[in-house]
Amino acid sequence: MNEMTTASLQNEANAQAAQTAGRAPQNRPRNRRGSEWQRNKYKDKTTTQLSTSLGWLSIGLGVVEALAPRKLSDLIGVPEQPLLLRALGAREIASGLAILAQPHRPAPVWSRVIGDAIDLALLGTALRSANGNRNKILVTAAAVGGITALDVICSRQLATRTRSGQQSDESGALRVQKSIAISRPPEDCYTLWRSFANLPRFMKHLESVREIDAKRQHWVAKAPLGGTVEWDAEITEEKQNEVLGWRSLRGSDVQHSGTVRFMPYRGRGTVLTVDMHYSPPGGMAGALTARLFGEEPEVQLQDDLRRFKQIVETGELATIEGQPHGERGMFYGLISKGKR
Amino acid sequence: MKANVWHGKNDLRVEQVPDPKILNPRDAVVKITSTAICGSDLHLYDGYVPSMVSGDILGHEFMGEIVEKGSGVTNLEVGDRVVVPFPIACGDCFSCQDEMFSLCENSNPNALMAEKMWGHSPAGIFGYSHLTGGYAGGQAEYARVPFADVGPIKVPDTLTDDQVLFLSDILPTGYMAAEACDIKPGQTIAVWGCGPVGQFAIKSAYLLGAERVIAIDRFPERLRMAREQGGAETINYEDTDVLDALKEMTAGRGPDACIDAVGMEAHGHGLQAAYDGVKQAMRMETERPIAVRQAITACRNGGTVSLPGVYGGFMDKFPIGSLMNRSLTIKTGQTHVQRYMRPLLDRIVNGDIDPSFVVTHHIPLAHAPQGYDMFKNKENECIKVVLKP
Fold first, then answer.
1. Which helix (H) or strand (E) holds B36?
2. Closest CA to B34 of B163, B196, B157
3. How far is A10 from chain B (nearest CA, A)?
4. Residues of chain B with C-beta less than 8 angstroms from the C-beta of A336
5. In A41-65, which positions are buried (b, 16+ CB within 10 angstroms) versus exposed (e)?
6. How many CB atoms lie within 10 A of CB B203?
7. How confident is the model at residue A340 (pLDDT cuts 50, 70, 90)?
8. Measured between CA atoms, how close is B90 to chain A, in angstroms?
9. Residue B10: which region, alpha, beta or left (left: phi > 0; alpha: psi -120 to 50)?
10. Which of B53, B100, B111 is opposite residue A328, by nearest beta carbon?
11. Which class is domain B2-169+335-388?
12. A-contacting residues in B 40-59 (Cβ below 8 Å)
């Protein structure tokens, strides 16, 4: 029992649920044995292979720029500016290392796109200068343009599949999925979630949810930089102790929908699975801003579910807020970030 | 109230801080009568445990009287005399229901931070860094105890504080370490470190049927205590080659089980100890794993290595080859104290063990920083310090 992993817990619950529902839940293995975990964050191998190649290209080019700037200037036909080329080389090496460290993340590849734009701009300047070799520069610019296209393609592909449990579709809407095992029966979990007014107790980004009637609620969520966003939502799917679905009403500022499934586990517990979609206010820019402030949606959901589990299992939320302490130093703000 | 507050490496101050309050229904507030300095507190004092923050109140071995309780605590009354276990455990989750209380899934408010460091989060612990919750500790006049309906155990007035205080940590820790060795009659157990946990591991090994216990340290007073109180044979590693001696003492086979009651700040001598000292000082490894390497290497083929000693992060030159090729078993973990309090209290009541023998110093809480210094440097033959608020 001790060595039972969450994945196997979940697969087992999925298998049970699949039996009762007569079909496997979407995106999940039908059988517990001999099945492959479908939501693999490194699944798209071609894209990470491309980003890894781009990373090595960056480093190779960077080393040449840094070590042999004069020879390179001659080769590509630009006027000799060794200091500038060395700086560009350093940038390439940094980009390359960042990509190789996280080949599945889009941000380092985007840094290459920005670098390409700088390079193209500089080549344009060189083209207009008197002592450049026009033909060589044009060939170089064509090559850089081709690589820029590759960089853009690669970063876009990476952006659609980032971390486990988090994807975004073409419209820029985020999709977040998480599961958690809870040592209480599905009824208890369902009852707590069905009273939507309870949601802000464990969903940290929610300020309040007011139930307008049996089917509709008014949601108020915290937005980055201290603002709030509000919308009305309605229940779209409801099967007691099994599943709850909701969706924001047409015309809301925020497009949000979610499904939570309560799957019995060995008669003594629940595997709860949440699948949420939302288009944050401000579209992708809003999502990126939120991420800059440390609110990764899938990490946030994982922590929300942990708090939900605490309430269901223990009746309270573990906290240290309000306990005594001595005088805090200047770094306390850093470590206490994100703490209740 | 007064509390012993951490302000950085080797910087503790006893300060005036606000009194604790009930924050959750299952909380209680305890007025502390005795609180001890643990060997693992020295890892915090020496700055080797990450995520300590200036202003944190230390202490995870304490007992006292319930002075206030939340509505969810029905098994205790105000006025009850209780010992508080160091791991905070809800009693309701998967781990607690399997009696693995130090792995409680619900008591660490900073579980996310622990998951980043260790993959999964263990339970919250009093006064033991923000990785384990950042809870205010018990080296104070009062402490808030979460899940008070699960942890604290009532103790009879016929026993003194010194006799029951160590139910909070080190007695169960020494006991669990010995229990993990799965001792069969006639077996030989070796114990690295003759601090309080080592002393209790020696006693527990005999209680669980060991024929011989061999204890290893370098301080004469600790080795003497292991011989006189514990009945162990002893090796002073400054005079004797430990691996050689253990082989010789066990007819070449090695001890059946080895207990590392030292942990991350082991001392040693020679090139290896110098290597780990430099790497730890440069923060290139978080541990000085001299004791655990010896424990693994010394253990007989197919034996068990039990680690009650505390480790925090990553170590170098872990003898995985010796471990694998010789079919060794490693058992470890923060102690599931709640599992052992009742049976060990029974053993104290019936006279099997009187844990008070490890106490060498009683000092006022106000002098806690001096107590840490004395304990760290083993001055005045210091083995265990009990603070009195």
1. strand B28-36
2. B163
3. 14
4. 53
5. eeeeeebbebbbebbebbbebbebb
6. 27
7. very low
8. 7
9. left
10. B53
11. alpha beta
12. 51, 53-57
Burial of B42 (0-12, 13-18, 19+ CB in 10 A): middle
A168-222 pLDDT, tens digit per residue, is 554 557 788 999 999 999 999 999 999 999 999 999 889 999 999 999 999 998 8
Tokens describing residue A112:
């290459």
Q: Which of A302, A309, A322 sits opposite B23 (nearest CB)?
A: A322
Is B5 in the A-facing interface, judged by CB distances under 8 Å? yes
Fold of B171-332: Rossmann fold (3.40.50)
Q: Calculate the alpha carbon distances from B288 to A6, A301, B42, B236 in Å.
A: 33, 38, 14, 19
User: Which chain B residues contact residue A321 at CB under 8 A?
Assistant: 23
Go through B44-66 and write b for each residue having 16 or more CB atoms within 10 A of its CB, e for each that does not.
Answer: bbeebbebbbbbbbbbbbbbbeb
Contact B306, B180 (CB under 8 A): yes
| Residue extent(s) of CATH 3.40.50.720 domains in chain B | 171-332
Structure tokens at B29: 């507030």
A7-15 long-range contacts, Cβ below 8 Å, gap at least 24?
A: A7/A37, A8/A32, A9/A181, A9/A265, A9/A271, A10/A179, A10/A181, A10/A271, A10/A273, A11/A35, A12/A265, A12/A266, A13/A181, A13/A263, A13/A264, A13/A265, A13/A270, A13/A271, A14/A263, A14/A271
Q: How far apart are CA B333 and CA A20, in angstroms?
A: 39
What DSSP assignment string belongs to A56-71? HHHHHHHHHHHH-HHH
**First-to-last CA distance in chain A?**
32
3-state secondary structure of A155: helix
Structure-token pair, residue A291: 């991420």
Length of chain A, in residues: 340
Separation of alpha carbons B143 and B41, rounded Å: 17
Is A333 in the B-facing interface, judged by CB distances under 8 Å?
Answer: no
The reported pLDDT for the residue numbered B236 is 97
Residue A302's closest chain B neighbor by CA?
B112
Residue A257 CB neighbours (<10 A): 16
Tokens 């263990």 correspond to B122
**Nearest Cα residue in chain B from A321:** B23
Q: Is A205 helix (H, G, I), strand (E, B) or coil?
A: coil
Residue B243 in 3-state DSSP? Answer: helix
User: Rounded distance, CA A141 to CA A110, Å?
Assistant: 19
Residue A100, Cβ density class (10 Å: 0-12 exposed, 13-18 middle, ≥19 buried): middle
Q: B127 touching A, CB under 8 A?
A: no
Which residues on neighbouring strands pair with residue B145, listed in sequence order?
Answer: B28
**Using an 8 Å Cβ cutoff, are A310 and A183 in contact?**
no
- How close, in Å, is residue B238 to chain A by CA atoms? 41
Please report the pLDDT score of residue A20 as a whole number.
Answer: 45
SS3 A257: strand
pLDDT band at A30 (very low <50, low <70, confident <90, very high): very low
> What angle, 0 to 180 degrees and rounded to 10, lies between the N-to-C axes of helices A106-128 and A82-101?
160
Quick one: tokens of A208?
A: 């309040």
